[in-house]
Amino acid sequence: LLQIAEPGRGNRSVSAKQFKIELQGGPADVETLLIEPTSGTLQLVTKGIFAGSVFAAKIGDLRTDRVTTFEQIADSAPGLVTDGAYSPDGSNVALLTYVSLVTVDPKTWQSVGSQALPELSQPETVDFLTQTRLLVGSEGANPALTEVALAPPADTAEPVATPPSKPEPNQLSQLNRRLRRKRLTQQRRKSRSPRW
């Protein structure tokens, strides 16, 4: 994990502090870092195809001179999670996937609501504006941000579009194309990054 000081607006050069970490059970694809609002606990959500896991560590346990292990606390996250955020009061977590925005109860890490996304080329960012309003956006240069409402609990909500537990063949091929494009983008970025 890299820690930088808040850079503010505009183009800035910053230095980073690097913390060594590992996941209990071994490496995994992770794109989502959450910070629990009341305790400051760090949580990582893995990006599995059909489901993800949640790992946690106390921020005070991070060290630059030794490895900190994130322990698994749940295995019920949705698949293909690309970003997430806590609501301001910590009562809900919004997890963004390629096909939906899922509302999760952070006490159980079970889904309590889900909704289809607005048209986004590659959903990669989400954050709360208020307790019930969020911004979602795509990867890329200067992407537009779209305001959406948090999906209410399933037992009080109108029917909403939810992703199937296993994607249909045409949906899976679309997801595979997105993943291939993402890997190519990451490879290009790495090839342009300075060697340390």
Structure description:
With 196 residues, this protein is mostly beta strands. It contains one helix and 14 strands. The chain is globular, with a radius of gyration of 17 Å. It starts with a strand and ends with a helix.
Short recap of the structure:
Helices cover 12% and strands 40% of the residues.
Cross-sheet strand order for the largest sheet: 3-7-6-5-4
Roughly what is the average pLDDT, rounded to an integer? Answer: 85
Kindly report how far apart the N and C termini lie: 16 Å
C-alpha geometry: globular
Largest sheet: 5 strands, mixed
Rg from alpha-carbon coordinates: 17 Å
Q: Return the structural class.
A: mainly beta
Number of helices: 1
Sequence-ordered SSE layout with sheet pairings:
Blueprint: E1 2-3, E2 17-18, E3 20-23, E4 30-35, E5 42-46, E6 51-57, E7 67-78, E8 81-86, E9 93-97, E10 100-105, E11 110-116, E12 123-128, E13 133-138, E14 145-149, H1 169-192
Parallel strand pairs: 3-7
Antiparallel strand pairs: 1-2, 4-5, 5-6, 6-7, 8-9, 9-10, 10-11, 12-13, 13-14
